[in-house]
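Suppose a colleague, Dr. K., hands you the sequence of a protein chain of 254 amino acids and asks what its three-dimensional shape might be. Before reaching for any lab equipment, you can write down a predicted structure in token form. Begin with the sequence itself:
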Amino acid sequence: MLQDILSIGDKIDVQQLDHMGRPIKDAATSVSQIIDFKDSDSINIAMPMVGSRTIPMELDAQYNLCFYTVKGLYQRNCIVTGRFREEHMVAATVKITSALEKYQRRQYYRIECIIDIEYRVITKEEMVLEALLLANDFSSPQIKQECQNKLLEYDKGYQSGIIVDISGGGIRFTSECSHSKGDKIILKLEISSSKRNKKYSLRANVVSSNKIHNKINTYEHRVEFTDIDKKEREEIIKFIFEQERRKRQLRRKT
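The predicted structure, expressed as tokens, is then:
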């Protein structure tokens, strides 16, 4: 439940998202706070402000909320389902669209880039086999081996894609295939830094997938990493900051 993590009065940073679920460029981050819990997945918050100016939240619009709680920082996207007045306060009802996620801000610093990737969708049958292996409840070693062999057969049919931006939390990439929100995928990519090149095989959930207008058979996908190793995430973050430093150095020279 939300009340297990959030409390009335918790401060919130609010950032509006576009129709593809991405932060709107140059949009100011506004400040709000929780004023009440409406139900299991909805909360009432004060209409956010920038300085002394109130920023009305748009009905049915998507926002990213960063909660400052006693247990640390948590973030999640939401959709605005209502607006109302309470005494002298203007407020909004927002529905949290998925589970709260704890994070460090620096993990989500995003940088534009061009990186070739290969990826594939993880099938439901594959997930069932993985669950069986995790439980390790087989009647014989032969059956277990058969399960492992079937999983190896699934690890084929990778498609090509191009990363257009990356953060410690996920990537945005393009490909010639459409996907559904909630699809689970495996990504294979190589990151080159000043010290070394390293190949990664990472799992992710599709957050959004949309056709790019004016481009034939081209789709843009936003995905979040899942079950990523802490060391791998830190390596990606270091790569991002290294690339940002290079960009700053180039800007100084021009």
